[in-house]
UniProtKB/TrEMBL annotation:
This is DNA-binding transcriptional regulator, LacI/PurR family. It comes from Sinosporangium album. It comes from the Bacteria. Pfam families: LacI, Peripla_BP_3. GO terms for molecular function: DNA-binding transcription factor activity; transcription cis-regulatory region binding. The keyword Transcription applies. InterPro entries: HTH_LacI, LacI/GalR-like_sensor, Lambda_DNA-bd_dom_sf, Peripla_BP_I. Residues 11-65 form the HTH lacI-type domain. Keywords: DNA-binding, Transcription, Transcription regulation.
Amino acid sequence: MSGIQRTTVRPTLEAVAARAGVGRGTVSRVVNGSPKVSERARDAVLQAIDELGYVPNRAARSLVTRRTDTVALVVSESRRRIFDEPFFADTIRGIGAALSETGLQLILAMAQSSEEHERLARYLTCQHVDGVLLLALPAGDPLPSRLEAMGVPTVIGGRPVGVDPACYVDVDNRAGARLAVEHLIARGRRRIAAIAGSQDIGAGVDRLAGFHDAADPAGVAGPVAYGDFSEVGGMVAMRELLAVDPGVDAVFAASDPMAIGAMRVLRERGLAVPGDIAVAGFDDSGAAAHTDPPLTTVHQPTDTMGRRMAHLLIARINGDTPLTPAVILSPHLVARAST
């Protein structure tokens, strides 16, 4: 025990200054991280803060620094998908890990309808946050440009459609889809169908383009059905493909949940995977290694994606201009028994 009695009354900035033998302004500069303080004075202030149990008034501090130390993550998806699908969980985990190193707080905001977007835009542009991260941005969404116009730094996860973003991080979705289809061709498949994702999202557009990049020149392109990246969407699309072309011998699905849904339908129809139809997905989710048979898929570094998004936003909040405003991460194929 140090023998120092902590008062039950919340210590003030003036009390810290008196204990440290410095002026109130010096204490304020130390609390706000200013370098314009001598090492001796800083040590005295920090010791007084520790002895008194002083906690800076966050609201008052924000008036001085014009910072809230809070970052918002906006996800334009249903709550079910956000909490069920591994892409969102892994990306958010990476964002949280990067922000935890800085002391910034993360708030999660979900908005789908135009009314929700409008309320959210008003909130985010009223100095409640220092910056905004956005995921699953629908085509042409005006929110990023609106935030930027109001001086709120933004970073988008995934290349948006119909938007020219200031800063974004994505995986090379087109190259990843091409890898999956080339793998199916190399395994001897000659009629390859695709279950494409939503075409109002960059990943959906790019993965379908990657499918065609590989399948069209090889003359193996089969029918295309569209899903919403979910397992149910994959089931509906797989039934559609079998109805349109029962002769397909492989399927590339633009997400693991859709691939898993497709495999469920194939099993229901008595078709063997990969004996009758090979299946490849995209995500390398935790579930992919535990399907029956284990799912061949494209690994995308979602945790790294979240971290890079956070690092870019931190740099922008601090007034830095990122050298590379568009960061594209490389995927790789994980071959398993489903092909």
